[in-house]
Amino acid sequence: MFLNKKSAALYLLAVFFILDRILKFIFNDNYEITIKILGDYLKFNFAKNYNIAFSLPFTGYYLIIIILLIIFAIIFYTYSLYKHNRNNINIFFLLSILAGAISNFIDRNIYGYVVDYIDLKYFTVFNIADALITLGAIGILITNFSNKKESA
């Protein structure tokens, strides 16, 4: 059985989503674990994040509403692109953002915070879901910027 590029991309996103959920489960239940990968510069270390991306201080009921609205907007926009068979790369990037947002949303509803576990010294503690959101957003910006440059 051979996979086409679309299926392989979706499987890859599913693997990252599942891996993120597994790691969050492991680190939330074993919060005292620290695994050094590159000394103190890169390690797996449990952290509770009550805020939004990069620990920006925005919390509470309104945050849940905003996240839900963003998730639904991404779902509808992605479906619209898919339905009209347009811009598959942006669909992938939107699904990447969606996978990360849903994973972090699950945390907020179960634990009241997002489980972060990748600790980069001098930067922040984040998780795979955060990386999916960030890479998806950067991917959309780059593709849309390069598309506008080509059409100009």
What does this structure look like?
It is a single chain. This protein is of the alpha+beta class and 152 residues long. It has one domain. It has four helices and four strands, in the order H-E-E-H-H-E-E-H. The protein has helices at 5-29, 61-83, 88-110, 128-151; strands at 34-38, 42-49, 114-120, 125-126. Strand 3 and strand 4 form a beta hairpin. The relative contact order is 0.16. The mean pLDDT is 85.
Percent of residues in beta strands: 5-15%
Pick out the low-confidence regions.
Answer: none
Cross-sheet strand order for the largest sheet = 1-2-3-4
* Integer-rounded radius of gyration: 17 Å
The shape is globular
Mean pLDDT: 85
Give the terminus-to-terminus CA distance. Answer: 42 Å
* Total domain modules: 1
Q: Please summarize the sheet with the most strands.
A: 4 strands, antiparallel
Helix-residue proportion: 55-70%
H/E topology pattern:
HEEHHEEH
| Strand segment count | 4
